[in-house]
Amino acid sequence: MGKIDKVKTAVVGCGTISEIYLKNMTSAFEILEVVGCCDIIKERMEKRANQFNVKQMSIEEILGDKSIELVLNITDPVNHHLVSTQVLNAGKHLYSEKPIDLSIEAARELVQLADKQGVLFGSAPDTFLGEAIQTARFYIDSGLVGDITSVYATLNRDAGLLAERYPFTALPGGGIGLDVGVYYVTAILSILGPVKSVAGYVQTRNPDRVHYFPSQENFGEKFRLQAENLVVGSFEFQNGVYGSVTFNSCCIQNEKPQIVMYGTEGILYMPDPNQFGGEVKVILKGQTEPVTLQATHAFRENSRGIGPAELAWALKKGRKPRTSKEMAFHGLELLLGLYKSCETRAFYEMTSTFQRPAAIPRGHLGGNYMGSPAESGIAI
User: Fold this and answer.
1) 284 and 307 fall within a common domain
2) What is the per-residue pLDDT for 2?
3) Counting C-beta atoms within 10 Å of the first and last residue's C-beta, which end of the chain has fewer, N or C?
4) Do 223 and 360 fall into the same domain?
């Protein structure tokens, strides 16, 4: 292949999460060349442009620049549909922050538009490409714990505290299901494949709140949570595995996240899927205490940006990205299917499916293995 033909990339949305994206995309991945950034708040755009030495651009300039092939949409969830539609209509490849959209119907429109335009469309979360989830997948695929029969995931948070620190979490798309549960769902889907049907309960407990940080200008003002803070659900995979989730932000902020996969020969414990690394543990038949498994893959640190980089490599290699729009849509439908099930008091039958993404090949371990480039794993 010779010298890498970099993919010129622009970022729309310069909020908090943009910093780690831009840091990694401008320094950690050879395939990407970030040329510009955009935000409706000029001060945020200026800050990121100066911080990472990229050009300040309007959305019109980004969409009109024929040299820019890939656009990241990392705006707030309420703006995802508008920006993603603009990018796709401009014929550019797209990588979107999660959730892919706020409704099944709107998300389906984006998927169909990408197909019509013949462009790649990937979506966060990309943490499943990291060390922990790829390690877990390797051991599961190897048969270490036998056949998986069920999976359970749980997460606790404090919605009131989060609304004070991150106001978007009180708005549509910012609840514990769509904003955080999607990490758990995506990690599980990437290993076990598509789901057949779901059933669940969803609610927003005590939606009327009062801002309680004395240092803030809104201290004492009333506000309303517009996002879910309690999600409990069960689902059946197409392969016959059963799953269940409990996402509870009517709790404390000392997070105790967990994904547990139960197999015929053992139990595998996965760490926080909102992180890239962490210990994967197992209890095998005949044992009583879990042991930590050796990591098999790279990307232990915060590697946000690996998703866009992997999509860029997919573009160059002529294959589908691992962070496919089909899996992202399926994950959104699963979560919103729980909501619909709660409303109808009936099972929700999934309408979508996807192909399980290819595992990242072993052996590309980065600096831990005499400088072997970790990026090689997502380039293959």
Assistant:
1) no
2) 56
3) N
4) no
> Looking at residue 38, which CATH number applies to its domain?
3.40.50.720
Do residues 249 and 206 touch, judged by C-beta distance below 8 A? no
pLDDT tens for 36-78 read 999 999 999 999 999 999 999 999 999 999 999 999 999 999 9
Mean pLDDT value of segment 345-362:
97
The closest alpha carbon to 324, from 178, 119, 173, 58, belongs to 119
The pTM score is: 0.95
**CA distances from residue 310 to 236, 306, 337 in whole angstroms, order as listed:** 29, 6, 29
287 and 311 co-located in one domain: no
Whether 263 and 152 map to the same domain: the answer is yes
CA-based diameter of the chain, in Å?
63
Q: What one-letter code names the amino acid at 29?
A: F
Give the CATH number, domain containing residue 270. 3.30.360.10
Domain boundary among 243, 272, 292: 292
Q: Which of 321, 228, 262, 233 is nearest to 31 (CA)?
A: 321
Residue ranges making up the domain that contains 144: 129-292
- Cα separation, 358 vs 321, in Å, equals 9
β pairing state of 7-12 and 32-38: parallel
76 close to 15: Cβ distance less than 8 angstroms: yes
- Indicate whether 337 belongs to any domain: no
Interatomic CA distance for residues 355 and 357, integer angstroms: 6
- CB contact at 8 A, 175 and 202: no
Q: Beta strand 222-224 with 208-210: parallel, antiparallel or unpaired?
A: antiparallel
- The pLDDT score that the predictor gives to residue 1 is 45
- The DSSP secondary structure of 27-52, one letter per residue, reads TT-TTEEEEEEE-SSHHHHHHHHHHH
Inter-residue contact 9 to 33 (CB < 8 Å): yes
Omega of the bond leading into 125 within 30 degrees of 0 (cis): yes
> How many domains does the chain contain in total?
2
Per-residue pLDDT at 322 exceeds 60:
yes
Are 268 and 316 in the same domain? no
